[in-house]
Write a structure and sequence with these properties.
By secondary structure, the protein is an all-alpha fold. The chain has 27 helices and no strands. The longest helix has 45 residues.
Length: 635
């Protein structure tokens, strides 16, 4: 019996690149046809801006007779002002010798003689730079904000760590808070709490509270279920289990929460000066407005020193084994340091001696001027070439395309990358921006963010891959990343301003060097977490080093890379907006103008809202991509 094989004709399959290419060509044709129409140009006298300005006028007129202010908001302001005044008075009462001695003692208890020496030298440098009073004001502002953040954030974090329902409720709120640029907090707080130290403390507290909640919740979640079950089986109540099991075991991670809260607060206090908060921010803002690095640099270095000292103290506390108690000798040394400072305080002048200060403003400005003139050809070539070939064409594309075409393109891209819900969220954000009357300036801001993010990701991927594959390079790079991540964002404007002056490129350059460190670290960690068995299997199968990277490590590190992209976008958006002070313009400039010109408050307030919407749009797209299944699954 014979059988005849019947061949089934194969179906024609369309290559995967055809559909996206066709859609892209459709958008190109639509742009060429409708270019210059439906562009929604900016109008600084738009009725929605005037309405917000009028609302501020009404609030200012009724601040002391409206029940909401009279019985609620004013009392919050009074309480925060009293807390700040108490801490400020206490720090000043210690005198400069007493404060240096107390900080040295606390640093000794936290991490030993090295940390103590760094704390003493760091706080002495504030006086040497002639910034003692401004540094004490900044420390009081940070202490007030951090204290309020921890008093509110740690209980909420514990609650979120113990309850899945509460955690799901808090997550979207914290997401929005963390992607909001610094400036976005200032307008509503100036509206409800006026300006001054209380508004600055509240702005700093709101900006720094998300890590306190998130990391505390994570610390509680990571407590061993076995330890919790053992406590419950012994008859402990929920409160006893929390106090005797959860909190002690989560101690080191909660110390990290405190550290991150302090770092976030330090990065916010400079911007809080825009609403008249005291401290080092005034010198930095003054230097930026005059484009004088000599005024900015000492204050910027003082903030960096304060950040490093506090960071080293908290990291030392977090790393310490809770079973190792502080020895008697350490307590004696700490008492001697604190006592010596407090005894010397009434014997020495209360103000830092003028003969122990140095003024390098003119010298720094001379060096910057020499660098600008000597390197003008190189920096000008880089700036002009990049602007003419990349920045200006992309900005023209965004601002000359119809608003509906940009919205449709974002919808399609977001749908393809992240799915339906993130795409609809992104579309809703863009529509809201159009309704607010900030479309043109939002597109200009989106241009600078997009350019900075692409460059940041390219650099971050290259350095992260290099660090993951060569341990020697990673060991060299890691301390540099640690130092970079403790610096407040404003510090990165210093080298950018010195090299490129006040231009949009300056803001992009500063945002790149600000956002690269976390991107590098996330990429490196993502590649290093690829299972060794998978790497060995690919190597034994004959994969080259390049094939191993492109076919195995990068695809399996996809989630970490997408998280790096998300963090790069968030940090770049925040920094590009800060860059409005050095010529970036667009939404950031509108916000700054709203604070400096009372008649433009409405435009500044609405621009802050538009920045939040822009951040939410970009964040949802990248977070949605992170939640999609990895292409390696199911292989």
């Amino acid at each position: 019996m014979s059988s005849t094989a019947v061949s089934t004709p194969s179906r024609f399959r369309v290559p995967g690149w055809v559909t996206p290419t066709g859609i892209a060509l459709l958008f190109v044709v639509a742009y060429l046809i409708f270019q210059g129409t439906g562009t929604l140009p900016h109008n600084s006298e738009a009725p929605q801006f005037a309405a917000v300005t009028e609302l501020r006028e009404w609030i200012d007129d009724h601040r002391n007779d409206n029940p909401v202010f009279l019985y609620f908001l004013n009392y919050i302001r009074i309480f925060v002002e009293a807390l700040f005044g108490l801490l400020q008075t206490t720090l000043y009462a210690l005198g400069w010798p007493g404060l240096i001695g107390v900080m040295g003692a606390l640093a000794w208890l936290a991490g030993g003689w090295r940390v103590a020496l760094g704390a003493v030298a760091g706080f002495c440098s504030f006086g040497v730079f002639g910034l003692w009073q401004a540094s004490v004001d900044t420390l009081a502002l940070v202490a007030s904000a951090v204290l309020l953040s921890l008093v509110i954030g740690i209980p909420l974090g514990v609650w979120a760590g113990l309850s899945v329902r509460v955690r799901k409720l808090f997550t979207p709120v914290l997401d929005v808070m963390q992607i909001m640029p610094h400036f976005a907090y200032l307008a509503p707080l100036a509206l409800f709490f006026h300006i001054g130290a209380p508004a600055g403390v509240i702005a700093t507290m709101i900006y720094s509270i998300p890590p306190a909640i998130r990391i505390t919740a994570l610390a509680i979640q990571r407590v061993s279920p076995t330890a919790v079950e053992a406590s419950a089986s012994l008859g402990a109540t929920r409160a006893q289990t929390l106090l005797k099991v959860h909190l002690p075991l989560a101690r080191s991670t909660m110390a990290l929460a405190i550290n991150q809260t302090i770092m976030m607060a330090l990065s916010m206090v400079v911007i809080a000066n825009l609403i008249s908060a005291p401290g080092l921010g005034s010198d930095i803002i003054r230097g930026l407005s005059r484009a004088q690095v000599g005024i900015m640099l000492p204050a910027g270095l003082a903030i960096v020193v304060m950040a490093v000292v506090l960071d080293r103290m908290m990291v030392s506390v977090a790393k310490r084994d809770p079973r190792n108690k502080i020895g008697r000798s350490s307590l004696v040394v700490a008492a001697v340091l604190a006592g010596a400072g407090l005894i010397a305080a009434p014997l020495l002048p209360r103000e830092w001696p003028a003969n122990l200060t140095i003024n390098l403003v003119s010298e720094i400005n001379d060096v910057v001027l020499w660098a600008e003139t000597s390197w003008f050809g190189v920096t000008s070539f880089i700036k002009d070439t990049f602007s003419n070939l990349v920045l200006n064409p992309l900005e023209h594309l965004f601002t000359s395309a119809p608003w509906w075409l940009v919205a449709a393109a974002v919808l399609v891209v977001a749908w393809r990358i992240s799915g339906v819900r993130p795409a609809l969220t992104a579309l809703a954000c863009l529509l809201a921006i159009a309704l607010l009357g900030t479309w043109e300036h939002s597109m200009r801001t989106l241009t600078t963010v997009a350019v900075a993010v692409v460059v940041t990701l390219v650099i971050g991927l290259l350095l992260g891959v290099a660090a993951a594959r060569w341990d020697t390079y990673s060991a060299f790079q890691r301390p540099l990343l640690d130092a970079a991540q403790t610096m407040p964002s404003f510090v990165y404007l210093l080298p950018a301003l010195a090299l490129f002056g006040t231009t949009r490129f300056t803001a992009i350059f500063a945002s790149i060097i600000f956002a690269v460190p976390p991107v590098v670290r996330l990429v490196e960690d993502g590649i290093r977490t690829v299972p060794a068995t998978v790497v060995e299997a690919a190597t034994s199968a004959g994969s080259t080093s390049g094939q191993l990277l492109w076919k195995v490590q990068l695809p399996m590190a996809r989630r970490a890379i997408l998280l790096a992209a998300n963090q790069g976008i968030v940090m770049t958006l925040a920094m590009v907006v800060v860059g409005a002070l050095v010529g970036a313009g667009a939404l950031g400039y509108d916000v700054v103008l709203g604070f400096s010109q009372r008649t433009d408050f409405g435009m500044g307030f609405v621009a802050g809202v538009a920045m939040v919407l822009l951040g939410v749009m970009l964040d949802r797209i990248t977070q949605g991509a992170d939640r999609r299944p990895s292409p390696t699954k199911g292989m």
